[in-house]
Amino acid sequence: MWLRGWDEEYGGILYYRDVMGLPVTEYWQDMKFWWPHNEAIIATLMAYQMTGDEKYASWHRMVHDWAYAHFPDPEYGEWFGYLHRDGRISTRLKGNLWKGPFHLPGCSSSAGRCLNRSRPRGKGEPGGWQTGRTQALVRGDLSIMLRDLVLENRSRRRFDQEAAVKVETLRELVDLARLSASGGNLQPLKYALSCDPAMNARVFETLAWAGYLKDWPGPEEGERPAAYIIVLGDKTITQSFGCDHGIAAQSILLGATEMGLGGCMIGSIRRPALSQAMAIPAEYEILLVIALGRPKERVVLEAVEPGGNIKYWRDEQAIHHVPKRSLEEIIVG
Ligand SMILES: Cc1cc2nc3c(=O)[nH]c(=O)nc-3n(C[C@H](O)[C@H](O)[C@H](O)COP(=O)(O)O)c2cc1C
Prior knowledge:
Blueprint: H1 2-5, E1 31-33, H2 34-51, H3 54-70, E2 82-84, E3 89-91, H4 103-117, H5 131-139, H6 142-152, E4 159-160, H7 167-178, E5 189-194, H8 197-204, E6 227-234, H9 244-258, E7 262-266, H10 271-277, E8 284-295, E9 299-304, E10 313-314, E11 320-325, H11 327-330
Parallel strand pairs: 9-11
Antiparallel strand pairs: 1-2, 2-3, 4-8, 5-6, 6-8, 7-8, 10-11
Helix pairs in contact: 2-3, 2-4, 4-5, 5-6, 7-9
């Protein structure tokens, strides 16, 4: 059906054609109407969510991107309803007997709900945090999506330990690091992976958690990370790793957040113990550990005045508060 409906030449979904690909009796067989695009955006997203088949994700991107490139009215909002086959506007009307304020809001809210459902959340997580990103995704507004992702990507230290993270997921995340920037393009980083409970337990013993929370020794059994990525520097390539590992770690954590996971960079590591636990060869320097899992804690950002206290803290509901300096304070001059 997809192959019959998708316009290989100009993109978008053709409005009615017969099984032979020939015109139907009406005039619209070489036009693009708004509503099949709205419905296909939802249907492909749902099909992907139900099956996990990448084919549907790719169809979703095709129809989403084409629709948002052609139907929206950049001046007054909403969508035009009727386009020529090549995407040019046929008529600027936005409302008539058939086109009302129905399909587009319906598409946005259905796709939004679908995306919300597809992201596993820990118990204490606020329900609405990804609404902005969802709406942005539906609108195709990448800058808002990125800001929301950065906001969501907090250091998480309590997890649903039972929610396993597969090795394929860790490999996918390392691939994001592989594609990230590297000083002199040396690419001296290597990665050791752990998602096996027994190995996780050994890694956990070598890490120090949340230094400012003096009364908290770290996540208790049941709330510990389900996986770790250990970022290593290959000393046969260089002795100085610059900020490569920070960039790599951020790519990994943004990717994890995008997948509904969360994590924490850990620099406070008993390195010899970890080296031994994971049998890491001597030519690799342990640079960072990234703890990962399905987050089970709520983290909120708060403003801090110049000279104020930047120490993160936890309230009685175990909500983790992270003070952030203001933009005015950090931009010099
Ligand atoms: C290089 C680096 C090392 C870190 N090491 C640790 C660590 O050893 N233990 C820990 O609990 N958190 C560690 N963190 C997490 C920071 O405490 C966290 O980034 C900070 O509190 C701000 O919170 P946010 O990430 O939610 O913005 C580290 C972060 C970075 C960037």
